[in-house]
Specification:
mainly alpha, globular
Length: 201
């Protein structure tokens, strides 16, 4: 097993994971499909839900897979190297921060829902599965992507306390808190009944 205890090694983990998270799947997919930039069109959020509005299911699925992969790959790679929980948690959090503030795209990123979900699935499969199930069930019944994400974030933070090691639970709670904060405009629109539903132009 490689030594991940040194500050240099942990710094490398954080930096590489951040760069991976900074790859804006929504922007790249939009360019591939000749769609408007999702950062300036639709809801202005570079995520799968906005790409769905702008370009349909195929573009949205590719965006979703890209964002999920950004959260999964750094953690999964470190698991293969038998890295400790602290390194796994750091990689997941850094990839999530990369999505929120991507260095390659002017630090203007998305809300991190899919990237967080991917990170959770790799960090703690039980918590990740519960989070994804919560989102799917809420989205099915309410048709609100933002509300589903908020509910999933709360469930993830609570479940992590019981189902994940402490350092991983801390990372999940931090991601959940940031994800909720990034949805502050959605929360206001939900309160006013103005939030668009999934698939609505």
């Amino acid at each position: 097993m490689l030594d991940f205890s040194s500050p240099a090694a942990l710094g490398g983990v954080a930096l590489v994971s951040y760069f991976i998270g900074s790859i804006a799947s929504a922007v790249l997919v939009a360019r591939l499909f000749g769609l408007p930039d999702p950062r300036t069109a639709g809801s202005g959020n570079p995520g799968a839900t906005n790409v769905l509005r702008l370009g349909g299911k195929k573009a949205a699925i590719l965006t979703l897979l890209g964002d999920l992969g950004k959260g999964i790959l750094p953690v999964l790679f470190l698991r293969l190297l038998q890295a400790p929980d602290a390194a796994l948690a750091l990689a997941a959090f850094a990839a999530f921060i990369g999505h929120l503030f991507p260095v390659f795209f002017g630090f203007k990123g998305g809300k991190g829902v899919a990237t967080a979900a991917g990170a959770l699935l790799a960090l703690s499969p039980p918590v990740g599965a519960l989070c994804v199930t919560t989102w799917l069930a809420s989205a099915y019944f309410t048709r609100y992507s933002s509300l589903s994400a908020l509910l999933a974030a709360v469930i993830a933070a609570l479940a992590a306390v019981y189902l994940a090691p402490p350092v991983i639970s801390l990372a999940i709670s931090a991601m959940s808190a940031l994800l909720i904060a990034r949805h502050h405009r959605n929360i206001r629109r939900l309160w006013r009944g103005e939030e668009p539903k999934i698939g609505k132009k």
